[in-house]
Amino acid sequence: MCHVSCIVFGSKNLTREEVRGKRVIEIGSCDVNGGLRPIIESWEPADYVGVDIKEGPGVDAICNAESLLERLDKASFDIVISTELLEHVRDWRKTVSNIKNVCKPGGVILVTTRSYGFGYHACPYDFWRYDLDDMENIFSDCDILALEKDYQSPGVFVKAKKPNGFFEIDLLNYELYSIVVNTRVSKITDKDLRSFYFKSLLFRDKIRNFLFRLMCSI
After folding, report:
1. Which distant-in-sequence residues (6+ apart) come within 8 Å of 127 by Cβ?
2. Which of 111, 129, 193, 201 has the most CB atoms lying inside 10 A of its own CB?
């Protein structure tokens, strides 16, 4: 899933020279409303693998992002792409770790995700919001080559290079803003998912989706 601004960022910050003859993986690759894959494949990578939690356009292998390294080898891809995924995974630390570790030393990581102010949008879940400082901290063990706000809506984009002497930063106690609890926390609990606040959020989302479908049918 991808916004136009994500495609613009990716096409601007990846180059044909970086891609040609390289192995590319896209994590969260189901093509719901467009994506980077057609552009990247036109630059002749050696391989392009799209993984997601369910079958769909652009999905070559079904795999949970938190379980990626149970299916794939470490340091097996030159370019790792993840657009509009990180807000939807409950265990964001494991997912970020997998993104970093499936990338080869010297390889490129490109990530886009949503920031505070972007509405709840379950696909099928929605947990986190990231800002510029978060991405700078989360990828401080890599060389950050580009870091931008989304010019269309609240979101953040990052391109990073995994250094040859990569040593993964400890993010165990790092707190992120969660839309589930409306504050920064280190993790989401089952109790949080049963809270009145979260249930009311789900209810408002259902009403909003119903009204949207109703308007589209008129």
Report:
1. 87, 88, 89, 90, 92, 178, 179, 180, 188
2. 111
